[in-house]
Amino acid sequence: MELQHKVILLLLLLFHLLLVSAQTDSRDYSGLTSLTQSWTNKPQSWVGTDPCGSNWDGIRCTSSRITQLKLPGLNLGGQLSSAIQSLTELDTLDLSYNPGLTGKIPPEIGNLKKLKSLALVGCGFSGPIPDSIGSLKQLTFLALNSNKFSGNIPRSLGNLSNINWLDLAENQLEGPIPVSDDQGRPGLDLLLEAQHFHMGSNKLTGTIPSKLFNSSMKLEHVLFDSNQLQGTIPSSISLVSTLEVMRFDRNKLSGGLPLNFKNLGKLSELYLAHNNFNSSLPDLTGMNSLTYVDLSNNSFNSSDIPSWVSSLPELTTAILGDNLLSGTLNLSNGYSNNLQLINLVDNSITALQPNKVPNFQLILANNPICLENGVSQLSYCKVPQVIPAYSTPPNNCSPASCSSNQISSPNCKCSFPYTGLLISRALSFSNYSNTSYYKDLEQTLLDTFHKQNVPVDSVSLSNPFRNSTSDNFQLTLDVFPSQTDRFNTTGVLTIAFLLSNQIYKPPEFFSPYIFKGDAYGFYGGEPGSKSSNTGIIVGVVVAVSVLVVLALLAGIYAIRQKRNARRSSELNPFVNWEQNKNSGTAPQLKGARWFSFEELKKYTNNFSESNTVGSGGYGKVYQGVLASGELVAIKRAAQESMQGAVEFKTEIELLSRVHHKNLVGLVGFCYEKGEQMLVYEYIANGTVMDSLSGKSGIWMDWVRRLKVALGAARGLAYLHELANPPIIHRDIKSSNILLDNHLNAKVADFGLSKLLVDSERGHVTTQVKGTMGYLDPEYYMTQQLTEKSDVYSFGVLMLELVTARRPIEQGKYIVREVMRVMDTSKDLYNLHSILDQTIIKATRPKGLEKFVLLAMRCVKEYAADRPTMAEVVKEIENIIGHAGLNPNSESATTSETYEEASGVNVQHPYGDEDFSYSGVFPSTRVEPQ
After folding, report:
1. 525 class by beta-carbon count within 10 Å (0-12 exposed, 13-18 middle, 19+ buried)
2. Residues 43-62, buried b or exposed e (16+ Cβ, 10 A)?
3. Class for domain 577-681, per CATH?
4. Where is the region Disordered (predicted)?
5. What is the DSSP letter of 855?
């Protein structure tokens, strides 16, 4: 009995100690519990009832009150509830890079009166931005960019008198830019402490209010690019003497620059491209801080190239292409040593004095001077090349050979890096071959991480890319851990916080920037709860030890068995398919046949050149005749483009799931003797791309194009809605749509396809792959793949059907070109200049306008604004029905040539291009690395 009393007293003492040692205010713990009760993927360190005393990851406290909630990059899921108002002492809230956080921002967030920093970058929040945020008077940093916020910019933000950073970019905000008015309502013009207005990539309309700018402001970055603003740039902007970066490109602005524009002596980067400016080319003489100027794709006119192009001392880049400039370009002037590029493509330059190649890059392609004999081959008459590849080189070591998912760091250590996209919104250089820029960026990143005591071994930059839609420049950033092969939660959220809150300061040539972090799935070294009872821990350790001993013998046996099975599977991943050696069939594949190498060698006449019907980066396609007499197309992978064995097996299993008349059928496969081959049904009339280009000789009238679109749409709708689980194709394009004997469309090439399982809640987070020109910009930026990514690609295909133009041609993007000329108030929507003349020459194509409108809905910037493929099918059926045709009838049974159908020899604008595909299977795809 005495022993029992002692045990009870000991328990009471321990309980008392636990209560005394608790350091978290009960109100904060209760509020935090309510806020996060429905969240998924919470940090493993969140154990116990004492966040402050137990050092929960992402939580910082002062005097028992939670003051900082920093949880960026942890792949959290759920919603931000009204319980956030319970954390009344909060001064920092950062939930960035958690796309699983969705829903609306509760208005109760306005009760956090001590909040100084609010960062929700790259989440999935939607709905209006709450007016109540305007009551957070102490707020200095507000970053709501890269979400799905809609509605107007709240006027109440004008009450944030201490705000320094205001970023609302990459949302769906609309309406005018709010400024204060005579009724006492606030506006953005009252933000006199703000240095950053980042409002690009929204849907803002109206004019730029003159009242928006005044001489008391401290603005450094004004970014309103990619909106729908009209009118002129107000002269009041010249009052902001602190301005360094200005972006009003990709709007509908007109007129010219204000006369006092040259007063902006600190202006470094100026972006005004893709507007309707129609004045004389502005005189920027004396603006000696300018480094980067882009005035392209307007109607600026000048009879001479202005002298400021050569006289500005810091200028690296002048992009003046696609304007109305004419006359002579004088190279005799002394040009700055900093000058890297002058781009005058698509103007009317007639002469060069003296006629020599300068020591900087000069581009005069599509000017009259480049049409002269012997001139077109000069370097300045050629279309600019793509950005050269770059990847941080090893630091005087040999890259390590790493296991799956691990990457060799610049210091040649295998580890799991934290990754994301580092994006410059105003890059001040154009010489991408000069690696010193990248090295400076790498060093400043490393210095910042080390200064903040983050356990970082090294950083790597790769995949430089300039987005033609936004003109932003981006790099893939890999941050490698030190001392161990992976980061713990604290390491990830610290790195993410330094980037989301702009604590990292890049070199001037890369500023301003944003970071978009990826989900990290390799956590290690997670701390335990410090408030755990020691006796419980000892007991657990003892129990676990006993279990370990008991399980050891069974574990050894299981490991040996698993190792043997793995070895067998690695040698042949198909061992579990119960292959029938006699018939060559695999019953689990619903008829997909297992061919031997010798069989396919025989069917293709020893893979002879005469049987070759297509080729590309993947290898070659051969026509074969099976013993039954059936024609097949055999896709034989080249050695350098082979997939892993498991990936090859996965693709075969995926292809065997789908059976639809508008999908190319898989007949079988071969996996032996180091070969990977897929055997498909033979599709006689090649690709849609071949027919549109004139290469196949098949006449594609308007009706046939409609039915091609309908067939391809039906095939895609089947993949999205009837396949179980749904399948995202990921590489829809004209070279992946084949035409059979009746010109019925069949979707082909599932090499990049992805299954959408229930656990992925509508999207697959995956490395970006696809074909440039067809690639969904939202998928590219977020790495979240959805069925709507296929819808975007299909919209580009629809525009290709009506224009017969490639998606990207001579640097011009078909989606943007259609947007530029389209006017729904005019005949054929003013698309005469861009439509394929062969379909409008004879009669007016019925339903073309509705077809184009549907295509433009498919290529909306945000996936939520696009229709589903089922809706696309229904609308195309309606278009065909209203044209008096039967959407369910077979296409024409003959393949007329251009000459037979039209009676004339049609010279197609793309007839001389070098297409890699010449047969029945799609050409190679181009994938961003």
Report:
1. middle
2. bebbbbebbbbbbbbbbebe
3. alpha beta
4. 909-929
5. H
Which neighbouring-strand residues pair with 514? 423
- Determine the Cα–Cα distance for residues 471 and 250; give it in Å rounded to an integer: 10
Taking a C-beta distance cutoff of 8 angstroms, is the pair 245, 222 a contact? Answer: yes
Cβ density class 254-291: b for 16+ within 10 Å, e for less? bebbbeebbbbeebbbbbbbbbebeeebbebeebeebb
Mean pLDDT throughout 91-100? 96
Residue-wise pLDDT for 738-759, tens only, equals 998 888 999 988 778 887 765 4
- CA dist., res. 573 & res. 672, Å (int): 11
Do the Cβ atoms of 219 and 244 come closer than 8 Å?
no
**Percent of the chain's residues with pLDDT above 90:** 52
Give the active site residue among 189, 731, 776, 836.
Answer: 731
| Count of all residues that appear for the chain in the document | 929
Q: Which single residue is written with the structure tokens 């389209």?
A: 822
Residue type, 598: E
- Express the helix, strand and coil content of the chain in percent, nearest 5 each: 30, 20, 50
**Domain range list for the chain:** 21-295, 407-517, 577-681, 688-902
Q: Which residue has the tokens 């040692």?
A: 21
Distances (CA, A) of 534 to 4, 10, 440, 548, 652: 20, 13, 49, 21, 54
The closest alpha carbon to 718, from 785, 784, 790, belongs to 790
72 upstream amide cis, omega within 30 of 0: no
CATH 1.10.510.10 fits 688-902, yes or no: yes
> Quick one: angle between helices 869-882 and 702-721, nearest 10?
150
Token pair of 207, please? 């004019």
Tokens 């004095």 belong to 353
pLDDT of residue 3: 46
Rg over alpha carbons for the chain, rounded to the nearest Å, is 31
Residue type, 236: S
Pair of tokens at residue 565 = 């099975």
pLDDT for the residue numbered 929: 28
Same fold yes or no, 21-295 and 577-681:
no
Contacts of 473 (CB under 8 A, 6+ apart): 423, 424, 427, 464, 465, 466, 467
Summarize the annotated binding site for ATP as residue ranges: 635
CA distance 522 to 480: 12
pLDDT one-digit tens code per residue, 356-396: 778 889 999 999 998 877 777 788 888 776 788 999 999 99
Using DSSP's 3-state secondary structure scheme, residue 810 falls into: coil
- What is the Cα–Cα distance from 56 to 527, expressed in whole angstroms? 9
Cα–Cα distance for residue pair 775/469, rounded to 1 Å: 11
823 is catalytic: no
Rounded distance, CA 284 to CA 281, Å? Answer: 9
Torsion over CA of 554, 555, 558 and 563, rounded to 10 degrees? Answer: -150
Q: Residue 196: pLDDT band by 50, 70, 90 thresholds? A: very high
The Cα 898–Cα 383 span in angstroms is 31
- Check: CB of residue 825 under 8 Å from CB of residue 861: no
CATH top class, domain 21-295 = alpha beta
Confirm if 430 and 316 have CB atoms less than 8 A apart.
Answer: yes
Q: Residue 497 phi/psi, 5° resolution?
A: -65, -40
Give the integer Cα–Cα distance in Å for 378 and 356: 10
Do residues 61 and 51 lie in contact, with contact meaning Cβ atoms separated by under 8 Å? yes
Split at pLDDT 50, 70, 90, the class of 225 is: very high
* Cα end-to-end distance, the chain, whole Å: 73
Which residues participate in the annotated binding site? 635
Q: 407-517: which CATH architecture?
A: 2-Layer Sandwich (3.30)
Lowest mean pLDDT among 320-324, 418-422, 881-885: 881-885
Which tokens is 269 given? 């980067």
Q: Tell the residue number behind the tokens 């026509």, with chain if given.
A: 623
pTM: predicted TM-score of the whole model, two decimal places? 0.59
Encode burial over 80-89: b for 16+ CB neighbours within 10 A, e otherwise: bbebbbbbbb
